[in-house]
Design a protein that fits this description.
This protein has 5 helices and no strands. Helix 1 runs antiparallel to helix 3, helix 3 runs antiparallel to helix 4 and helix 4 runs antiparallel to helix 5.
């Protein structure tokens, strides 16, 4: 797969992931009681973080699509903050807080996904710099 196609796939993934995150989080946060019950023992700070992060995912997707160098920095910021919230979730669980196993799975996926996106974007930037020198 060439670089431009890889970049397009990455951008569309980030945009889609962001939109789905905003929709699903918004459904629970702003929906009725049935919506909240349907997700079980959600952790409010994780839910709020992911909802807000969804907007950053969309921004990163547009940045990737337009080849902006700041998109890699944003992806790193998303990866780091997601990891920190994941650590906070671990502390919450260790202190006996209620949670769903799917939250651990989702946070693992989110953290690894944004680390991978950052790595790919960093390689794109390094390749671009080599081509311009």
């Amino acid at each position: 797969m060439n670089r431009r196609l890889s970049q397009l796939v990455l951008a569309l993934f980030a945009l889609g992931f962001g939109l789905l995150t905003i929709i699903s989080g918004g459904h629970v946060l702003f929906g009725d009681e049935a919506a909240r019950r349907s997700v079980g023992h959600y952790v409010p700070f994780v839910l709020w973080f992911n909802f807000i992060a969804g907007f950053a995912y969309v921004s990163a997707g547009f940045g990737i699509l337009r080849s902006h160098p700041w998109a890699a920095k944003l992806a790193l910021g998303i990866a780091v903050t997601t990891f920190l919230v994941f650590v906070s979730l671990g502390i919450h669980i260790a202190m006996g807080g209620a949670f769903e196993v799917r939250t651990i799975v989702a946070m693992t996926f989110r953290t690894l996904t944004w680390c991978a996106i950052y790595i790919v974007l960093s390689r794109f930037l390094i390749q671009s710099r080599k081509l311009t020198q």
